[in-house]
Amino acid sequence: HSIGQKRKLEGQNMEVLNRKKKKKLKHVPEAINEEKNGEENISESTEDTNIPGMGKKKKKKSFVENSFDEKYSEGDSKDETTDNTDFQESDMKKKKKKKKTQLTETAESETSVKLNDSNDTKEAQSNDLSGQLPGSNITLDLLLKDSSFSALEGRVSEETLKAVEEMGFTKMTEIQAKAIPPLLEGRDVVASAKTGSGKTLAFLIPAIELVHKLQFMPRNGVGCIIISPTRELSMQTFGVLKELMTHHHLTYGLIMGGASRTTEAQKLAKGINILVATPGRLLDHLQNTPDFLYKNLQCLVIDEADRILQIGFEEDMKQIINLLPKTRQTMLFSATTTSKTEALTRLALKKEPVYVGVDDKTEAATVDGLEQGYVICPSEKRFMLLFTFLKKNRKKKVMVFFSSCLSVQFHHELLNFIDLHCMCIHGKQKQMKRTTTFFEFCNASEGILLCTDVAARGLDIPDVDWIVQYDPPDDPKEYIHRVGRTARGANGRGHALLILRPEELGFLRYLKQARIPLNEFEVASNKIADIQLQLEKLISKNYFLNKSAKEAFKSYVRAYDSHHLKLIFDVSTLDLAQVAKSFGFTVPPAVDLQVTNSKNSRPRKRTGGGGFGFYKNINRENKPHHKIKYLQPKR
Questions:
Q1: Domain coordinates in residue numbering, the chain
Q2: What architecture is domain 370-616?
């Protein structure tokens, strides 16, 4: 019985569908006749003929009428009405095929465009800036011709331009002229330029303008975060920011390791619009300060990106980037680019960035005003050469770079003991001491500063005459950053001296490949002060200097053993008896070096002058070490 009812219902439904089809076919020729009489709008004719149940399908109906119109002009109307369903289906299939072919063509064209874009180099992307940027009235060519800050009028606020004028800057440097326009347009930028080329203003001006235009208030929280690798560099960036903000009403602040965390948390709770920070302390506040409002962040600046990664903040940077909002503008500035900075670029910059590079491949990697040279000196005469040089240039401003903190500490104590006044900065000092020493040396017209690579990046110390590299740098890029502390600015002048052992001359090939021009400085042996006997007598009699010299000697050998360029700086080539003489010892102390089986356990990464100048070993596994090898002097 139920099966019979179902069949009846199916039959009734089929009858209703057939009636609807017949009604459709009756109304279609009427629309065609109206078109023939001169009415152009099919949509109007469909509205006049009120077809039941077809009010929501006007587009489909107009398509049917158009298809029938084409068929009507070719053949008889009787054939149309009988075969309209077949014609409609075939036409729909043709249209679908056309759409598919169009989609495949567009997809192929899009993929070809994407492939072409991916094949374009960074130089091609930077060349795009030669034209007019979207939404901009000023082209890059105009800015490079008229490189004065007045060319930015109308795009940069009067408050910022007034502050720049008061700071004494009238013309933009090349990196500023290339980086500021795309940053003002809101584009992500990856910029690299020589040290001392004015990168700080290149990212501070657009960052201030972005927060200023959005009219940030303290209650809105942080709008821009600037990450600097070291405390000294963050203080310097904050000092420039302070000068630029003299006419603005925005709030700004500095958070860094070594400062009081509670006072920083209170300031963050009140609201800081522009924040300068070191990576470790920033991550600490992001994770543990509940009143730190950062969800409205509009801009992230990463200064000296390669240095941040080099000193072991890679994991911190990944966590910071994951915590911060994704919809933001990102600026990445550095003096050198490495594979790790490219990885950070991919992580931090979601949009396709604009690559701004000032340095051409044919140019030298260092500035023109820098006179560079090297001296070949055997191990036993190294300290005597340094002492002679510093005594001759005691009325000038000199920076001396060492490989470890303990070596800096010993030479600082020794030179001051023999009445050659000098200052020192290294990673084992307390923050207050580092800060006061840094500003004291900045304000001095003459003096000697002994330091590790903590002072090698970004610090703008005025009027440095000489950079002396007593211990060799880790690689050519580190050399560039060290000598970048002198000859800063457009017309800066300075000198750099690299002290090498005869076994280390192969390092010059690497410097030549890095486009670093060096001349050999000859020093007559009779002009070097012979103070070896006095030094040995002093170290043997003075308990504190003796203890400090032992630690410095050990840290020097360990740092040398962990050097990146093992082929040139091989610890087995060191004559420890001769090296010990430069520390005032007649018999060298024993140095313990840990030896492992695996090749991958060799140190790969420096910790930035902290600790004993060791290198951070990323690939080291927790395996038991073999017996400790003691290095003894050659007989």
A1: 2-82, 122-357, 370-616
A2: 3-Layer(aba) Sandwich (3.40)
Of 142, 156, 144, 165, residue with least CA distance to 184: 156
Q: Would you tell me how many other CB atoms lie within 10 Å of the CB of residue 385?
A: 22
- Closest to 615 in 3D by CA, of 414, 430, 478, 435: 478
Per-residue pLDDT tens digits for 272-282: 999 999 999 99
**Rounded to an integer, what distance in angstroms lies between the CA atom of residue 508 and that of residue 518?**
8
End-to-end CA distance of the chain: 116
Beta strand pairing call for 354-357 and 370-376: unpaired
CA separation for the pair 490, 511 (Å, rounded):
23
DSSP H or E run through 496: strand 494-500
**DSSP result, 120-156:** S-HHHHHHGGGSPPTT-SS-HHHHHHS-BGGGGBTTB
d(CA 68, CA 425): 89
The second-level CATH assignment, the architecture, of 122-357 is 3-Layer(aba) Sandwich (3.40)
The HSE-up count of residue 134 (CA atoms within 13 Å, CB side) is 2
| SS3 letters across 187-226 | CCEEEECCCCCCHHHHHHHHHHHHHHHCCCCHHHCCCEEE
CA 53 and chain centroid, separation: 63
Quote the tokens at residue 476.
């050519």
**Within 10 Å of residue 133's Cβ, how many Cβ atoms?**
17
Mean pLDDT of 63-82: 42
Other residues' Cβ atoms within 10 Å of the Cβ of residue 512:
12
On the question of a common fold for 122-357 and 370-616, the answer reads: yes
Question: What are the CA-CA distances from residue 420 to residues 12, 188, 388, 391, 393 (Å)?
Answer: 113, 49, 11, 7, 11
- List the 447-451 sheet strands across, edge first: 423-425, 447-451, 397-401, 466-469, 494-500, 370-376, 519-520
Which residues have a Cβ under 8 Å from the Cβ of 537 and sit 6 or more positions away? none
* Long-range CB contacts (within 8 A, 24+) of 344-349: 344/302, 344/305, 344/309, 344/314, 344/317, 345/190, 347/317, 347/318, 347/321, 348/300, 348/302, 348/317, 348/321, 349/188, 349/190
pLDDT grade for 478, boundaries at 50, 70 and 90: confident
Residue 64 has pLDDT above 80, yes or no: no
d(CA 30, CA 69): 11
Alpha-carbon distances, residue 88 vs 83, 91, 99, 505 (angstroms)? 9, 5, 16, 85
Q: What is the mean pLDDT of residues 193-204?
A: 83
> What is the percent of the chain where pLDDT is above 90?
38
Does the predicted TM-score (pTM) go above 0.85? no
- Amino acid symbol at 435: T
Q: Which two tokens stand for residue 353?
A: 């960035």
For residues 107, 110, 115, 116, the Cα torsion angle rounded to the nearest 10 degrees is 150
